[in-house]
Design brief:
GO molecular function, one term: methyltransferase activity
Largest sheet: 7 strands, mixed
CATH architecture: 3-Layer(aba) Sandwich
Keywords: Methyltransferase, Transferase
CATH topology: Rossmann fold
Number of strands: 7
Enzyme class: transferase
Protein name: Class I SAM-dependent methyltransferase
Order of helices and strands: HHEHEHEEHEHHHEE
Radius of gyration: 17 Å
GO biological process, one term: methylation
Number of domains: 1
Strand content: 15-25%
CATH superfamily: Vaccinia Virus protein VP39
CATH class: Alpha Beta
Shape: globular
Strand order of the largest sheet: 3-2-1-4-5-7-6
Structural class: alpha/beta
Distance between the termini: 38 Å
Bound molecules: S-adenosylmethionine
Length: 249
C-alpha cells in the first residue's frame, strides 16, 4: 500500500511537481471552472471590496486566480508550504492586492510561527485540495476558525468521495487510467500515488462536514460539482458563527 506523504516530504514532492502542475491540471476538464464556482459559492458581497481572503494551500495560484476572478476587489493572501509551487504562483501576473507567503498550514496554529503578512483576521478562507494532505486537519481547522472574523466564511474545495461504491470506482479508474500514467511521465509518480491514496484514506464528504462542525463552524453545507467529479469533488461551505457563547476557542 502506498505511504502517504506528509509535511517536509510532501512539500519536497510539490517542489518537484511544480514544473508540470499547471499542464496536468489543464487536462482535467472543469478544474479552473470548478474552483471559480467554489469561490462564487462563498457568496461574498460587492466583488470582495474591502475584504481580506486567505487562499490556504494556494500552490501555483490556480485557486488564487479563481478568487481574483470572482472577487477582484478583495485582498488575497496565498499561503503554501512548497517554495517551488509559490515560485510559479509569483511568476504570474496578478493585481496589486494579491500577495504570497511561504508558510505551512500548521504555522497558522501558533501565532508566533505565522509571518505577519499572513496574520488574520480574514473575512473568508478558501482551501482547495489541501485538507486531506494534513497530518492534523482538526487542529488546522480550529486555527482557521480563529483567524476568521466572527461571521467569516470558509470554502473547502476537494476530492472527498461521496460515499457510494460508484464514487470510489470512478476515482480508482481515473487514477489508474489517467493520473498515475501522467504523473509517472512527468517524474512525479510518488506525488500522484499519494494523491490517489490521500483521497481514499481521507473522510467521505459527510464525515468531513462533521469535522467542520466539530471545529466550531456552523451553516455547514456540502455542494456537488458537475462532470466526472460528481460524487468525488465537493465544495464545503461553513461559517464561523457571529456570536459564540464562551468567546474565543
Ligand atoms: C494539490 S495542490 C492545490 C493548489 C491550489 N490550491 C489549486 O487549487 O490548484 C495542494 C497544495 O497544498 C500545499 N500543501 C500541502 N500541505 C500543506 C501544508 N501543510 N501547509 C501548507 N500548504 C500545504 C502543497 O504544497 C500544494 O501546493
Amino acid at each position: 500500500m502506498t505511504t502517504l506523504l506528509r509535511d517536509a516530504e510532501l512539500a519536497a514532492a510539490f517542489d518537484h511537481g511544480a514544473r508540470a502542475y499547471d499542464r496536468l491540471v489543464a487536462l482535467n476538464p472543469g478544474y479552473h471552472a470548478h474552483l471559480r464556482r467554489s469561490a462564487r459559492r462563498l457568496g461574498l458581497p460587492d466583488r470582495g471590496a474591502g475584504l481580506r481572503v486567505l487562499d490556504l494551500g494556494c500552490g501555483t495560484g490556480a485557486s488564487t486566480a479563481a478568487l481574483v476572478s470572482v472577487l477582484p476587489k478583495a485582498r488575497v493572501v496565498g499561503v503554501d508550504a512548497s517554495e517551488g509551487m509559490l515560485e510559479r504562483a509569483r511568476a504570474k501576473r496578478r493585481p496589486p492586492g494579491v500577495s504570497f507567503v511561504h508558510a505551512t498550514a500548521e504555522d497558522l496554529t501558533t501565532a508566533h510561527d505565522l509571518p505577519q503578512s499572513a496574520a488574520g483576521p480574514y473575512d473568508a478562507v478558501f482551501a482547495a485540495y489541501l485538507f486531506r494532505n494534513l497530518t492534523d486537519p482538526d487542529t488546522v481547522l480550529r486555527a482557521v476558525h480563529r483567524l476568521l472574523v466572527p461571521g467569516g466564511r470558509l470554502a473547502v474545495h476537494d476530492y472527498c468521495l461521496g460515499g457510494r461504491r460508484r464514487d470510489r470506482a470512478v476515482w480508482s479508474a481515473v487514477c489508474k487510467g489517467v493520473v498515475l500514467p501522467l504523473g509517472t511521465l512527468t517524474g512525479d509518480r510518488d506525488l500522484y500515488r499519494h494523491l490517489r491514496r490521500s483521497v481514499t484514506a481521507f473522510d467521505t464528504a459527510p464525515v468531513f462536514a462533521e469535522r467542520l462542525r466539530r471545529a466550531g463552524f456552523d451553516r455547514v453545507r456540502v455542494l456537488p460539482l458537475p462532470g466526472w467529479q460528481t460524487g468525488i469533488t465537493h465544495t464545503f461551505l461553513a461559517r464561523r458563527p457571529p456570536y459564540e457563547p464562551g468567546g474565543e476557542r
